[in-house]
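User: I'm putting together notes for a lab meeting next week and I want to include a structural view of one of the chains we've been expressing. I don't have a solved structure, so I'd like a prediction I can at least talk through. The sequence is below, exactly as it appears in our construct file.
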Amino acid sequence: MLKNNIELLAPAGGMAELKAAVQSGADAVYIGASSFSARAGAGNFSPEDMRSAVEYAHAYGVKVHCALNTLIKESEIDSAIETAVCANECGVDALIIQDIGLSQHIKKLLPCMELHGSTQMTVTSLEGVMALEKMGFSRVVLARELSLGEIEHIVKNSKAEIEVFVHGAICMCYSGQCLMSSMLGGRSGNRGKCAQPCRLPYELIEKDKVCDNAYVLSPKDMALIEHLEDLKRVGVSSLKIEGRLKSAQYVSAVVGVYRKYLDNPVPVSDNDMAELKNAFSRSGFTDGYLTGKLGKQMMSHKNPANNSGSTFTAEAKLRAEGKFVRKIPIDIYASLYEGDVFRVTAYGKDGLCVVCEGSETAQTPQSRPLDGARIEEQLRKLGDTPFEAKTVTVEVDKNVTVPIKEINKVRRDVCDLLWNELCHINKRQVNNVEIIRKEKRDVPNMYLTAEVMTREQGSAVIKAGGIKRIYAPCDVAQELSQLDCGVEIVTRASDILSCEDIKTEAVSVSSLGAMVRYGEKAKYGEWRLNVYNSLTANAMSGLSCITISPELNLRDIADVVSYLPDIDAELIGYGRIPLMIMKNCPIKALGRCQNGKNIYKLKDRKGMEFPIICTKGCNAVLLNSKPIYTADMIDEIRKTKINCIRLNFTVEKSEECGKIVNIYRKALEGEMPPSMAENTFTRGHLKRGV
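Assistant: Thanks for the context. Below is the predicted structure for the 690-residue chain, given as structure tokens.
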């Protein structure tokens, strides 16, 4: 049973960190396998290490969750499944998963394995939790951006356990939605290899002039140590500490402080808050998302790095050494009868007991006999073991003895045997389930779609002709739908699910939650659904078209699309890819606001400028510095069996939108497109991938 009915979940990048977490009072730890972990830079665990880790943790009654939380390419499905089966054999208690398709296969393959929805799934709504419940997830890790009220609403109305982050680094972008590291350097956060470009300096550009200079995208670390009782009250099941790239000393210090205040809910002392800051801090901490206090106070504008000094208390260091600081309570019963051997029974948790006996028969002593007190004294000497004797009961005949070394040997033997029993991993069921892939698709006819932000852009796209479908924000879609234009108008639901009065017959959705909310209206799937493989695409039942992840290259796309006979597959063929979607607007955090006028950009150290646009809910979206351009790649794209090329218009003027549509329409008809000026466009990942 969880302490205080709430789980303290600690990070472990390696065995030393896992032991530190256990010894510091964690109820559960989360680790990564040697592949498919969102912390590829951590030490992570080989199969042998994983089994040892599970044995050690289970001996203390601590659960182990394995993060299998990257997106999986079609060519990697078999390997990812092997990793899951290995974790199952090692006794892991739960898998933390991002990839929907992978999760659905594992649910059939490993029926005893718990599935936890990763924060990389960007679950921000009750509907999102409900969707995962239906898919067999027993727990959901919510997005860090939710307020206490939003968390409470989800907990009170869902069946799944709810897990929230309470301490550690936070991303500027909603987790699972960031493409900045991916697009700029080929290192994808969705693949566990984020290069953290958010921790670099940027200039804020207003109408072509520098108006500010700072680490604009670098938030402070989260610390919710003062809100533990609130999280208990609303019914959160698990409190998660970030830090699989952190040291054993860090894990020890942070887990130790959180354990203290979970067990003893009193105001946090200055010394304990200092211990957290000394372990790791970017100019202090923030609780801004939970409390709704966004803005500058959440940011570490002057210094994106750890400026704590990384100093630790003697107690934290001791626990980090993996020594048996946290003892396992046991009950001991011993007997010594005339003509019999010395016998010890040790009782652990849940009725577990083991018995060991000596080899020498009790004899009549030549001098002083053994009494119960003397035997108890020896049995309590458990100092170098993981155990402490809660009770010791001794039954001994009068006038008998055995050598003290015999008592010590049996004590050691019973401790070793009990430890082995506590570490024992039971074999669990693995079903014989084949990967089901549908028959390969025919080469389809290719058509164009467009996404617009304004009515003017939409009108220009319609006028240019050749567009089958237009996606637009709610209000713009409503206006365009009044036109008699012969083009399907689709409301593009907000990226982060919110209340919208949608009037169009069809909706384009960015999340599982939106699929639940909009039901039969949800016909088109956005790239934010992170479709990396055919299993995920086919799990999105009911959608007519899915936009493939922009992180895949042409070969990856062909691998996915070839197994999608019943659904249109869309590729972003033009436009500035959104790199980040941010709840804490970086412009407002610098004391400014563009009021939807799109007058601000960020400039990096290489002189590249990234526009910032405002979307529903005052979420800020950072766009790539260059648009994707593929009009001269139509023949290559056609070979992938993609049948829909999407043109994304964001900051383009209406005239430019019309020109781009004409270029792509003519390219589909076989006309040679014009060349783009060098360094004015990008191929995205179509040539390289991640």
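A couple of points you could mention at the meeting. The two ends are 42 Å apart (CA to CA). The chain has a mean pLDDT of 94.

User: Perfect, that's what I needed.
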